[in-house]
Amino acid sequence: SPPLIPGYLPLIGNSHQLIGDRKYLWKRSQKTGVICREMGGVAAFLVGSYSYYVISDPDDCLMVSNTCLDKPYAYNFSKRLMGNGLITSEASLWKIHRKLLNPAFSQQMLTAFLHEINIQARSLVSQLSSKVGEEPFDVRPHFVKFTLSTVSRTSLGLSAEDQTIINNEYAETVEELFAVFCSRFQKVWLHLTWFYNMSDLKQKEDQLLKTLREIMDYVINKRKTELKVKEESEITYDPNSGKFKPALDHLLNLAEEQDAFTDDEIREHLDTIVAASYDTTSSALTYTLILLGSHLEVQQRIVDELQEVLKNRDVDVSKDDLPKLVYLEAVIKESLRLYSVVPFIARKIDTHVKLKNYTLQPGTTCMILMHSIHRDTKLWGADADLFKPERWLDPETLPTHPNSFVPFGFGKRHCIGKLYTMFVMKTALAHILQRFSVSGNIDNVVTEYDIVLKPVLGHHITLSSRI
Ligand code: HEM
């Protein structure tokens, strides 16, 4: 068995180390990551008598992710929102649904989204123009609005007039709901369903879920009606001319033609896609922009690259431009490495899993600490804590281990939206940095954990015009 993390007490184990606010929770996770590395990449802690493993050895992480495909019971806390969506569904159903959904996120589909992503990025730039020369401000709400409208258009197929349906109310409600899931995880007595059902937290969860359900049901029913009344000839999808097929149409078609999804499952898939995409991408964009505001030489190098590739043309960032933005990509990767917005994931251990040095026991949970892998000096070198995008430009300066960079998770259940995010982040940053010069200070940023990492203090930036 792996060694226990120090500090455990009789009966309660390490439970007391989970108690604190969400800033504390992030600090505790970081500390656990360091302890786990010091203990050789695998350790254990106890909540009462229940065992959790934490692992940060990349080979062991891959082994666990691909041997145990089911999610542990803590994911069930979010199951009333995401149900049989890809993140929370059981492995047997997930295998079928993932295959059906993969084409909705293929390279060809994403290329067709690109014109729309450019439109949304321009709208973001025009909102940010009002901040030029103003006091330092929080850019995250602008990124939330941008990522929500982008996903509303591309995944839900909402028209320009309707995209505000998935507005800030949806985002705020999802964030409050994630906070409820975290609180429940920390208050171990609320893991017991009958106890939880009597709590105020449960009542809050019911209310928040009702709001989200009403919004998503409205979106689905509206689209269903639209597709019914439209002549078949009117519904043309042509990726080459930007007439893309939104994920919602993809789901509705599969439901009709193959009886592949129930109405509830369609809603659960959409809630999963929207919740998984906007919160992560807007946080990642926020950290990247603050990093650029703190490293002006890096920012200038991106601006030079943009000038070389886009030649000051006020046109869309095209599918041919994206692979040429090599330095911008290096910056995004370095930002995701240092600020892993999904810092860890977990798996239900349902069989004996033999790792390099230990065997994990069934009936337990294993947490896979990506944030710890990303800062491991054995993999990344002595400068692992430093922001150095250049390391991505030369294979010699990158770790040789193939699983050293894993912001999108491990193995078969890795993120379905990783290419989508790269398209969205590159396009948004290209538009922003052509128009504005950014300043900020990453050293002042205080972060909290509520499933996704979020900057909460000291993260304000200022903008000045480049034109
Ligand atoms: C910076 C942005 C993002 C990060 C860091 C990220 C990270 C992750 C991670 C770590 C997982 C694995 C979860 C687990 O194993 O429990 C995951 C899964 C998932 N992500 Fe993302 N994600 C991002 C953006 C997106 C976007 C834009 C979408 C949708 C368009 C998306 C949709 C999903 C879905 C549906 C899954 C479940 C995949 C499956 O189990 O088949 N994510 N993501």
UniProtKB/TrEMBL annotation:
Subcellular location: Endoplasmic reticulum membrane; Microsome membrane
InterPro entries tied to this protein: Cyt_P450, Cyt_P450_CS, Cyt_P450_E_grp-I, Cyt_P450_sf, Cytochrome_P450_Monoox
Necessary cofactors: heme
Binding of heme, residues: 415
Entry annotated with the keyword Zinc: no
Gene3D superfamilies from the UniProt entry: Cytochrome P450 (1.10.630.10)
A Pfam family this chain is assigned to: p450
Topology relative to the membrane: Peripheral membrane protein
Keywords: Endoplasmic reticulum, Heme, Iron, Membrane, Metal-binding, Microsome, Monooxygenase, Oxidoreductase, Signal
Keyword Cell membrane in record: no
Sample GO molecular function, one term: monooxygenase activity
Superkingdom of the source species: Eukaryota
Cellular component GO terms, alphabetical: endoplasmic reticulum membrane
Biological function: May be involved in the metabolism of insect hormones and in the breakdown of synthetic insecticides.
Family: Belongs to the cytochrome P450 family.
PANTHER family on file: CYTOCHROME P450 4C3-RELATED (PTHR24291:SF189), CYTOCHROME P450 FAMILY 4 (PTHR24291)
Name of this protein: Cytochrome P450
Species in which this protein is naturally found: Helicoverpa armigera (Cotton bollworm)
Lineage: Eukaryota, Metazoa, Ecdysozoa, Arthropoda, Hexapoda
Gene from which this protein is expressed: HaOG200041
